Amino acid sequence: MSATTRVIGEVLLKVEGINLSFGGVRALSEVSFDIRKGEIRAIIGPNGAGKSSMLNCINGFYHPQQGSITYKGQPRRQMRPHEAAAQGIARTFQNIALFRGMSTLDNIMTGRLLKMKQNFLMQALYWGPAQREEIAHREHVEKIIDFLEIQAIRKVPVGRLPYGLQKRVELGRALAAEPELLLLDEPMAGMNVEEKEDMCRFVLDVNEEFGTTIALIEHDMGVVMDISDRVVVLDYGRKIADGTPDEVRADQNVIDAYLGVAH
Amino acid sequence: MLFFFEVLIGGLLSGVMYSLVALGFVLIFKASGVFNFAQGAMVLFAALTFVSLLKLMGSEVPGDGIFLLALVITLAAMMAVAVGTERFVLRPLVNQPLIVLFMATLGLNFFIEGLAQGIWGNDVHALELGISDRPVNLLDLFAGKSAVAPTPIAPVGPIVDPVAPTGSGQPDEIVIETVNIAPTAIIVRGGILVSQFDLFAAAIAGLLVLTLALFFNYTRIGRALRAVADDHQAALSVGIPLQHVWAIVWAAAGLVALVAGLLWGSRLGVQFSLSLIVLKALPVLIVGGFTSISGAIVGGLIIGATEKLAEVYVGPIIGGALENWFPYALATIFLLFRPQGLFGEKIIERV
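Above: the input entities. Below: the structure tokens describing the complete assembly.
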């Protein structure tokens, strides 16, 4: 499934020795792995393994007690969410987090907020450069809408859309920021086969056409093994395996974690 | 017919004063999806700080240097309240359910109220902005004649009941009409009398609304606001600095509170019950919609005009005091048939 045109480059993001606990509960312990430029990196594991926590650490929602996150060569202990966004990390959520009252178009436009440079006065008067800027961003958003094939729901408030489409709009909002690293938290959860196939296609296309690095959490093993370059497996907050899909599939620890061990 | 217009215009102008209070609520509601219970306290805080500073620094005439300095200091104090609120109340509550935020504003209300009175005491102060409350004749104004009504009316002292401000007081103006039998009174009788102060207040409110509407509807802050109100986490993930947005909005609400505090304070006297003008903003918000700046204006105008018209035309039939409850009755009807208000965002529920 790996395309020939894709180039997987140097390490884009590296997490080292991450420890995260909530009160007495250990969510992550000593987790280390890296994500290379241009690859599709999957994070898998049973429920409660700490996958979402890991993603939340990367984009700054959670602040690990120990460990470091090196992004684009800059090590740091923790990120702040809007800083992470400003540096090119965009994400989607497990339980869709869209702006429900706003239309599809407006939702995706929020993804461009960081790219808007004109000052408030100009924007308020919608004058000259501000107008040109707004139009340019709008054009970009239209491209995303075409790409995701959601032209028909452009003006619909997203709260009214079916689940599968909401997931797609959320992906659109993340793409609008032109991220270098895209974090997808269960992009295919709760979808039927057809929707899953669509979503797979979009994820692969984003990766290929825009060269966006993608880290995704997914439960559907078939999907994960098909589309990802490398897989990291978490269980009870620890990393138990890391490698290509084939390596991971054959790993005894992974089989034990998923199927259970006979005692 | 002229009398009808006089009542209508007086009502609309007093409605603008309601809008001014409602505006503060709309801003906070847009940014956090909660009814900011502390808005009334902020109005009180602003007015009390300003009045006390005037006394403290010894301002002689309204509009002199000290007056302006006090205004600037009060504005700075409101900004400090805004930033402090964000830092110590809102920031720890990111991602909490809305009811938690609402309860926080409830606590904030008592805190600011107490703070204001703790610092400045709880005396009733008169506030003189230097705008005459004498009525002018609108028709004369258009005809280019001297518009000030010939007879001075008794100055309106501090009125304790905040829910029934009688600034544009129709009764007063009617009295003038009947009392005047001098030849000039013919002109007065044929005119439309409105309070100068009300005109001034309306102009200020209009300017404020225009500025805020431009700022929040057409800048990226506007889009960011709606995003923040909808979902904190998602807003953060697209790179909206939640903290800055909140600080900006609370500062804007502080500015609105200051303007409302000065105008209402000079009308009712600066005192504790100023914080209760919140009650008058409620029906305005319900009619206009909680999320719309233009809704706050239109809602205020509707409430102002209908309550005065109801008082004057229906009041005598059922025994008066209609003004006090009519807005709430109207709001109830709106809740039944259009719960999002005239300009509010449609409520979407997908089950």
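Note for the figure: Chain A touches chain B at residues 59-61, 81-82, 84-86, 90-91, 93, 97-102, 106, 109-111, 113-114, 116, 120, 123-126, 157, 159-160, 173-174, 177 (CB under 8 Å).
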